[in-house]
Amino acid sequence: MSVIKTKGGGMVAAYEPEPQDRWVKTLIRASDNMHCLTVQRISQYQQAVAWAVSMADQFAMPLEIVPFDVNDLVKLNRQRLERGLALLTPDEQHGLRQDVVSTCIQVMRDCDDPSVRSDAYDVLVQMRMIQ
């Protein structure tokens, strides 16, 4: 983690992205809660840091730059995802399952990244489409 102090006394804590990270969020602490100010693609990590540094003097608390991946996204939104899936009709659930299977097969066939292909394979195993 890099800590960047501005000339005006503001501060930014920027966590370094990991290879699996796909997005970056800019957070600020207010009382006991963290509030998300922005979410951007990981390719915009440097822009997120630059923006936070330019804005840090406007806030009493430090800004945090936090990269995250799909697993983090699911963990943060698990209950909301489960409630949404529970509202689907059986036909919609079947259609979603077919879409996931088709997408994973396409990823395994066409993706150049071996870790992404491996993840797609793991999904198909968990869905009992492959043994």
From TrEMBL:
Protein name: Uncharacterized protein
